[in-house]
Amino acid sequence: MIVTAWIAEGTWPACVDAVRVHAPEAADVVLLHVSGPDVPGLAHAAYAGLLGRGHPEHDPGTRLEDLGADSAARLLDSAARRLGRPCRREERSGRVEREVVAAVAGTDLLVMARDGDLARLGPRSLGPVARFVVDHAPCPVLLVWPAAAPDVATLPPPPPH
Amino acid sequence: MLAGAVIRPFGLPEAVLAVPAAAVAVGSGAIPLEHAREEAARLGPVIGFLAAVLVLARLCDEEGLFRAGGAWMARVAAGRPRRLLGAVFVLASAVTAVLSLDATVVLLTPVVFATAARLGVRPKPHVYACTHLSNTASLLLPVSNLTNLLAFAASGLSFTRFAGLMVLPWLVAIAVEYVVFRRWFRGDLAAAVPVPDGAGTPPLPVFALVTVVCTLAGFVVTPALGIDPAWAAAAGALVLAVRALMRRRMTVRAVAGAAGVPFLAFVLALGVVVRAVVDNGLADVLGRIVPGGTGLPALLGVAALAAVLANLINNLPAVLVLLPLTAPAGPGAVLAVLLGVNIGPNLTYAGSLATLLWRRIVHQHEHDVDLKEFTVLGLLTVPAALGLAVVALWGSLYVLGG
Question: Which Gene3D superfamilies match (chain A) (predicted)?
């Protein structure tokens, strides 16, 4: 059995903890991180907007790509330490939601965290990226709250008849 | 020529195309030699000022000022993403105002990204803040943006008067950005889990900080003594350059490289070419559209026109085109142009020259930015920030006198 935990900034400890609780002892655990191109892309665009500067070697977007790779490796190290059992690390880069879906083909369980509005129960607790993954995952999904789940009182009122 | 500057065939510097284009403009008689010389004489000191600020910023980076800024942001944030956003806003606004927008884009953005990564915070809102503030927060001082330096020379304002009139629009525009960012990115600003990276706290580069503060004081004092404030920037850059050379941190070549000589040549050539285009009919066409007077509706009209033009042809050519048309109406109109060309570029991806840039960027980095998010964020911030900043400028002109 393969259990994949999607490790994302800010929400990963809950995923690792869920693996520790729910994955069988014999399962192979994969820690997956995907670096999106959008943030370095912003820096590329800002530099391109500075007309006449030339010097592509000064383009901060390239620096952000390098820094992103470093921080992804550190993130997976931290996650592996917290997991405290043997695991495989997988680093990917590209459109995050599509890379996650592609990476979990053949997996028996995907563990992932909500990434939207965490203050109340409801559809907005999933951001666009996590929403895409939940909707398209080709495997069972364990969806966890990054911190304590909001109170049931935050449930929206039922629609009028 | 603008297309050439964007595409940069064979990776050539922009100046390689721009300088011959300027030579053709002069040679073909599109611009009289006298006008070209006049333009060069006007742009010369501006370019010198720009070079000094670029070198100053680069040397501050060498001294570790930006790394120390990263440590400061991490300390202020204390692991909370919303506080980090506040710290990024303060630092990016200050760096843009004092060391120019180039410093924020090239030197500060990587530090902000690394700080966010270390705090375990999603980096997107903070990197977005750098890119937006490099435009919006470049209103305050003549040195904050090349567009300001060009307008400063044309407006006849003193350094302190320029800053005095722009401080309120600057604060208002930044406040609008902050309010929109807090709401738009509220999901991304919710979570943080620190990731240890073993990096210690870098020491505060007191020497660089004192030099920058002295340079700022120099901007205020030099005009009173009848000296061009560009010399204050040059002195600041010189002090740090001598220190870096003595400590063998940098070579003379690297310091000279930081001045960006091809860029300076490009600006000069662009000025000559734009003057030729303006002389040959553009002045008549745009002269009919540019609102006259300095009432609030006129200022709003000028700023909106400048913002649209900045999105069509990039803000550097836009300011060169609009300055001669608005300068006769007084400093109020010139400053309204600046609000438009400085805040406006946040509206479109890479400040536009749309299709050309688009093709170049798509080839280089395939569909990497969420264009919808970029544009919606631009639509939420730019009209509100621009409109309120113009009202603030109008109020400042009223109180301080145009």
Answer: 3.40.50.12370
> 3-state SS string over B160-179?
HHHHHHHHHHHHHHHHHHHH
Give the amino acid at B350. A
Question: What residue segments make up the domains of chain A, in order of their start?
Answer: 2-154
Task: With CB atoms and an 8 Å threshold, state whether B102 touches A53.
Answer: yes
Stretch A53-74: mean pLDDT, rounded?
82
Average pLDDT, chain B: 85
Residues A124, B240: Cα–Cα separation, whole Å:
51
Find which of B80, B107, B124, B127 to mutate to test the A interface (most A CBs within 10 Å of its CB).
B127
For residues B334 and B325, the answer to whether their CB atoms sit within 8 Å is no
Which residues are CB-contacts of B263 (< 8 A; sequence separation ≥ 6)?
Answer: A52, A53, A54, B13, B14, B15
* pLDDT tens by residue, B22-52: 777 777 777 777 878 888 888 888 888 888 9
**β-bridge mates for residue A89, sequence order:** A31
Residue in chain B lying closest to A60 (CA): B106
CB neighbour burial string for A89-116, b if at least 16 within 10 angstroms, e if fewer: beeebebbbebbbebbeebebbbbbbbb
Give how far A45 is from chain B: nearest CA, Å.
5
Q: Is residue B366 over pLDDT 60? A: no
Separation between Cα atoms, residue B14 and residue B21, nearest integer Å: 11
Q: What is the pLDDT of residue B2?
A: 58
End-to-end CA distance of chain A: 46
- Establish if A139 touches chain B: CB-CB under 8 angstroms: no
- Contact list in B for residue A75 (CB cut-off 8 A) is 120, 195
Length of chain B in residues, anyone?
A: 402
User: How many CA atoms lie within 13 Å of B140's alpha carbon, on the beta-carbon side?
Assistant: 21
Q: How far apart are CA B322 and CA B304, in angstroms?
A: 12
ipTM: 0.83
Over residues B194-233, the pLDDT tens digits come to: 666 656 678 889 999 999 999 999 988 888 888 888 899 9
Q: How far apart are CA B304 and CA B284, in angstroms?
A: 19
Question: Is B353:A48 a contact under the CB 8 Å cutoff?
Answer: no
Nearest to A52 among B316, B349, B365 (CB): B316
d(CA B389, CA B331): 15
Residue B355 has pLDDT above 70, yes or no: no
pLDDT at B273: 83
Which superfamily does CATH assign the domain made up of A2-154 to?
Answer: HUPs (3.40.50.620)
Q: Find tokens 């553009």 and name the residue.
A: B282
A-chain CB neighbours of B193 within 8 Å are 9-13
